[in-house]
Amino acid sequence: MTEQIKHGHAEEGYERQDLTARAVYAFLISLIVGGVIVYFIVWGLYHFMDARQRRLQPQQSPLVQQVETDTRIVSPDEIKKFPEPRLERNERIEINDFRLKEEQTLNSYGWVDEKAGVVRIPIERAIELIAQRGLPTTPKAGQIPPSTVNLGTQAAERSDTSDESAKTKKQAPK
15 FRET partner, CA 20 to 30 A, in 31, 41, 101, 165? Predict the structure, then answer.
């Protein structure tokens, strides 16, 4: 005896109970219609606010001449009238020129301030000098940092021999 157990439909394909194609299309159409409605509401709102702003503007003097020019088109001569920093026309070329100029500055000798006697030296030479001379260090705690005034005072005290005889007389017992 063969028993067959049937559990509902045994059809192949997709499940038809969840969502139909008609519901998906209705949702997409309502989404598009909603987007168009929102677009026109926002457009109307901006149009209303623009008209209101124009109404609230004070009237200009009739002596003022209104020149309608397109400010988006600028000639190269007019560009130099604008203050720095200016917009870049071609970033790659301009950054390459900038980098080349910086490399030349970093790898050459030249004056930074000729009146003050300040010069620049190439980086490689600066590294060699630091390797030879070392970096300046901070003095140990409790020591007076070296300065021209302190060094001069110490040298003067060492070279002063006029009071030595007076000091030795005071220290000697009678």
Answer: 31
74/76 Cα distance (integer angstroms): 7
Q: Identity (one letter) of the amino acid at 95?
A: I
- Write down how long the chain is: 174
Residue 145 lies in a domain: no
pLDDT tens column, 123-165: 999 899 888 888 877 767 777 666 666 677 777 777 777 765 5
Torsion of CA 106, 111, 116, 117, to 10 degrees: 90
Does 109 fall in a domain? yes
CA distance 125 to 107: 9
Question: Does 59 reside within a domain?
Answer: no
Structural domain containing residue 98: 92-135
The number of folded domains in the chain is 1
Sign of CA dihedral 134, 138, 144, 148: positive
